[in-house]
């Protein structure tokens, strides 16, 4: 990698860091609010009812992905590329919103009438019918929310993206869920509260969109053509559906084969494991539109420099979080009630699985932004099908731990495939011997946490806080002793000093 390439990448990298900073601040706030939301749900409903709630939520998430036909990703792809043509930008946004509303409305009606059949087939309580029917009402709302958030993301406004479809949603949910629990923590009351929160969120996000942007969504103009627009978006929605099947088919199959309490434990474990993705999600917030511009301008060497550095940062920060979550899996789960603490092994496996995703950084986005959407489609559906097959055999043989093991296996294999594909198609490879430094720091962090666990006079939350301080200090100290990379030092000096 040449010095010129590193220099050229510094300005985009600064944009990514600004976006990551805004995203991380927003995501930390959102995760804090999410923690409160999950705590309200788990303690108010208990493992079994929370399991039914989670099962319905996963079905809705899959429907949301199908409903927008990949138009949220089309906004990220086309709006930055058409910054010299506001009419074309408005057309992209208008097509995206219209497609999302129509698709979501059709799916909402289908889900409403299919709810009794789904409840009967999964042998779940009758309460699941009303859960699915009420959640169906939110489908058009959440798909439009996704479009609004993508507009902010396409403009490198990471803070507004997180506020519009993250922080505001959790804040409204906490208020409405608290009211529902005060009236009586029934499953019906909780889901009604979710519907009210969704209505409040879309109202706020629409106001934010009108206030903070100059866009006026419309269908006028001819750029991009309908063929080009849907040729990009439809493969992506199929790709995203495959990704959801890959990542969430496990909880659906747990719902089919295991009792409701198992679903609750399993879903809570996935929520906690997602803490690992905070660094990579932050770095990936602004990366896609920048990568698309670089690729469109033929700046492949600069893209390679940016890709490698962003991936190394994602790997480093995610590793620190992964070590902590594995060591304190049981203590974290017990915060949400004694009925969840038996999922420590499941949480540990999920931590490894999510770390495998974070360790490849923006590889998936790089494939998409370099116009390999059909390759991503094949990847995700292939992984989803394999995951479903493995989950069937592993769940029926090993129960809850089998589902997590199957998902972990597929996650590792699919991420290896992603790295091989971006290297083969574009000559981009995001790893080097420099990655050994954070690995050594991770080992030191694990040793420090082991020592802290042996001598700590406290337990519960104080143990977690103390462990976080000790582990982070050990990790950072070893990284400093091994030496900061020259490009990182140069970036820090240019940006901060």
Describe what you observe in this structure.
- This protein is mostly helical.
- The protein has one domain (3-431).
- 83% of the residues lie in helices and 0% in strands.
- It has 20 helices and no strands.
- The protein has helices at 3-67, 71-78, 86-121, 127-137, 139-154, 158-183, 187-212, 226-257, 260-273, 277-284, 287-296, 300-327, 329-334, 344-358, 363-369, 373-398, 400-426, 436-455, 461-482, 486-495.
- Helix 5 (139-154) runs parallel beside helix 7 (187-212) and helix 12 (300-327) runs parallel beside helix 18.
- InterPro entries: Poly_Biosynth_Transport, Polysacc_synth.
- This is Transport protein 56 (Polysaccharide biosynthesis transport protein).
- Keywords: Cell membrane, Membrane, Transmembrane, Transmembrane helix.
SSE layout:
Blueprint: H1 3-67, H2 71-78, H3 86-121, H4 127-137, H5 139-154, H6 158-183, H7 187-212, H8 226-257, H9 260-273, H10 277-284, H11 287-296, H12 300-327, H13 329-334, H14 344-358, H15 363-369, H16 373-398, H17 400-426, H18 436-455, H19 461-482, H20 486-495
Helix pairs in contact: 1-3, 1-4, 1-5, 1-6, 1-8, 1-9, 1-10, 1-12, 2-3, 2-5, 2-8, 3-4, 3-5, 4-7, 5-6, 5-7, 6-7, 8-16, 8-17, 9-14, 10-12, 10-14, 11-15, 12-14, 12-18, 14-17, 15-17, 16-17, 18-19
In a nutshell, what does this entry contain?
It is a multi-pass membrane protein. With 497 residues, the protein is mainly α.
């Amino acid at each position: 990698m040449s010095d010129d390439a590193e220099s050229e990448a510094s300005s985009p990298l600064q944009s990514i860091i600004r976006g990551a900073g805004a995203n991380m601040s927003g995501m930390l706030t959102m995760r804090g609010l999410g923690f409160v939301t999950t705590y309200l749900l788990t303690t108010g409903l208990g493992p079994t009812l929370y399991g039914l709630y989670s099962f319905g939520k996963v079905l809705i998430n899959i429907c949301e992905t199908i409903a927008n036909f990949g138009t949220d990703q089309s906004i990220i792809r086309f709006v930055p590329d058409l910054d010299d043509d506001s009419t074309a930008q408005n057309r992209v946004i208008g097509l995206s919103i219209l497609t999302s509303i129509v698709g979501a409305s059709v799916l909402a009606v289908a889900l409403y009438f299919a709810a009794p059949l789904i409840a009967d087939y999964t042998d779940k309580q009758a309460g699941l019918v009303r859960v699915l029917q009420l959640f169906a009402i939110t489908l058009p709302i959440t798909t439009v929310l996704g479009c609004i958030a993508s507009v902010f993301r396409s403009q490198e406004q990471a803070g507004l993206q997180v506020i519009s479809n993250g922080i505001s949603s959790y804040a409204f949910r906490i208020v409405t869920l608290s009211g529902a629990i005060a009236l009586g923590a029934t499953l019906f009351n909780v889901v009604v509260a979710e519907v009210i929160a969704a209505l409040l969120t879309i109202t706020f996000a629409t106001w934010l969109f009108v206030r903070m942007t100059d866009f006026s969504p419309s269908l006028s103009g001819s750029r991009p053509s309908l063929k080009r627009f849907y040729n990009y978006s439809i493969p992506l929605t199929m790709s995203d559906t495959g990704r959801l099947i890959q990542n969430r088919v496990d909880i659906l199959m747990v719902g089919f084969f295991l009792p409701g309490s198992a679903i609750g434990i399993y879903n809570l474990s996935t929520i906690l494991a997602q803490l690992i993705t905070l660094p990579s999600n932050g770095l990936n917030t602004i990366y896609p539109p920048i990568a698309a511009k670089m690729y469109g301008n033929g700046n492949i060497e600069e893209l390679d420099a940016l890709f490698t550095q962003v991936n190394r940062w994602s790997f480093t920060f995610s590793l620190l979080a992964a070590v902590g979550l594995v060591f304190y899996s049981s203590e974290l789960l017990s915060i949400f009630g004694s009925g969840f603490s038996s999922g420590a092994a499941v949480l540990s496996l999920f931590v490894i699985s999510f770390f495998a995703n974070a360790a490849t950084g923006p590889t998936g986005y790089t494939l998409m932004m370099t116009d390999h959407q059909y390759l991503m489609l094949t990847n995700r559906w292939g992984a989803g099908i394999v995951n479903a097959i493995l989950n069937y055999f592993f769940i029926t043989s090993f129960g809850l731990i089998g589902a997590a093991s199957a998902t972990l296996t597929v996650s590792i294999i699919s991420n290896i495939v992603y790295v091989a594909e971006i290297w083969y198609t574009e000559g981009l490879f995001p790893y080097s011997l420099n990655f050994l430094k954070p690995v050594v720091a991770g080992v030191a962090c694990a040793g420090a946490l082991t020592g802290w666990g042996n001598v700590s006079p406290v337990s519960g939350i104080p143990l977690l806080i103390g462990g976080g301080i000790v582990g982070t200090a050990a990790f950072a100290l070893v990284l400093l002793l091994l030496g900061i990379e020259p490009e990182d030092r140069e970036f820090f000096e240019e940006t901060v000093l």
